[in-house]
Amino acid sequence: MAAMLLEVQQVGLNFGGVQALTDVSFSVSQGELFSIIGPNGAGKTTLFDCISGRYTPKGSIKFNGVELVGQKSHLRPKLGIMRTFQNIALFPNETVEDNVLVGSDYRLRSGLLRSCLYWSPLGCSRQEGSHRAQAREIMAELGVEQFANVPASELAYGTQKRVELARALVAQPALLLLDEPMAGMTSGEKMEIAALVQKLNQERGITVVMIEHDMGVVMEISHRVLVLDFGQRIALGPPLEVIEDPQVRRAYLGEAV
Amino acid sequence: MLADRFDRIGAVALIACLAVVSQFMGDYHLALLTQITVFALSAMGLNMLLGNTGMISIAHAAFMGVGAFSSAYLIQNLGLPALPAILLAGLITSVVGMVFGLPSLRLKGVYLAMASFAAQIILYWAFEQSRWLTGGQDGRFAQRPVMLGISFMDSHRFYLLALAFAVLGAVANLNIERSRLGRAFNAVRDRSQAAEMMGVNVFRTKIASFGLATFYAGVAGALFGQYLEFVAIQAFSLSVSIQFLALVIIGGLGSLAGSVLGAAFIVLVPEILDTIILMFSHNTGEMAPIRLGVFGLIVVVFLLFEPQGLARAWNRTRQWALNHTGKGSQTRS
Lengths: 257, 333
Prior knowledge:
By secondary structure, chain A is of the alpha/beta class. Helices cover 35% and strands 24% of the residues of chain A. In chain A, strand 9 (224-229) and strand 10 (232-237) form a beta hairpin. Chain B has one domain. Helix content of chain B is 76%, strand content 2%. Chain B is globular, with a radius of gyration of 20 Å.
């Protein structure tokens, strides 16, 4: 097996007496397409929030050997981690292009002075232009280029999900965290996104960790699946193994055993 | 794009027009125009803070005061030439602004409003105490500058100087809006937590926004003092700070046109009301409370019918003009 890209060890998180995560451990290898499933409230998004720095959990989360716990959130993209959000977290008043370009923020280091002097030789116009071109390319790839100048809040739900994905990709991540990328989509759209995620994983070598409720898609495209229930890991393995696990059937699929 | 070109040509025409027409204006009208120009410059800063970054400040006038007093001090007491003194006054104000912006890391909305209210109180108190800087309740004199060998003692000349600063401020404002920092401002305003996870250093962005807003306030304050040739602490009171808030809200949040239109509104409407009142009564003093009341009423009615400000109304007019001059050509913007 390839080297481990993400190592989550004994991660626990407590919200005022509610144990949101309890001793969760798993690791994701370079190039893997890894899914996390579990009933609502199982702690899946909370786990993402720990990885991306919104919460500071107990335990250790290592990325490429670097400890993430305790590091500022805004350093994640620089390290190579980008994510999307379950309840879409675009900047609603801004255009699609400006939304996507926020993903470039950590690579654009122009400060006040270079912004003010935009067109002058000292200004940031050239750098801005090249990032704008990159953003356009990714937007075209995701089929949202025609909305470049439309405020994000005016777009359909599925389109907003794509814009979020574009914003994550423009940062050229090594690890992509997708929180329910296909929620609320038609089955046709789901197939498209599933194919896209697979393509990103295979052709660009982006390691993907995906939270998804659509079991068909999860079974189809994931290499391995982690199952959470009540903040605990109850199974981990290849999709076909996991689905046969009695504990998973009981907890997740609601079957009596 | 047609709309872009329309704006650019319009802006250049407006600036040229102001530069020429101002030279033939009488003292009264020139005074109003100068005040609008300096207020617009100051408002650009507050608008980037409130409109673009979503952080409120009820201390904008106090920051103008910092600029006004420090430039007067640098020029008269330390003998600095006017241009570096004005810029340095802007920087000093900016540093003070960033310090008072630190609570924004933790506070939002009403709480941040209270923190900036405290900043206004503290600064105003400091003005009263620092007689060596401000002259206390008596105020202090300020000189109209001589810059690059040109004297701006004359009011007509001074207007051109104020206009030049306002134009530079406006260009910087637009350039910031279309680059990384401008996007970071907006991202912090819309969803600061998501912005942080997308790589925006929210803390630095907020402080930069405070530094920028107060730099504008400092430079505008310096010019304001020099224009009046006298700086009094009463000119930077809480009510003036609130007036600036009203200015950017009426003008249009996050819009450069809004900063300019709002400044015109806040300066001209009371004057127009005065003129109207004079038609009915010869005692303006007696009618002053009515004037204030009517002004407040206009603001409320305006916000009810055009909550996105004058800039929005201007945009509609612009679109109408474009559709009628473009001879059916498509305009999207």
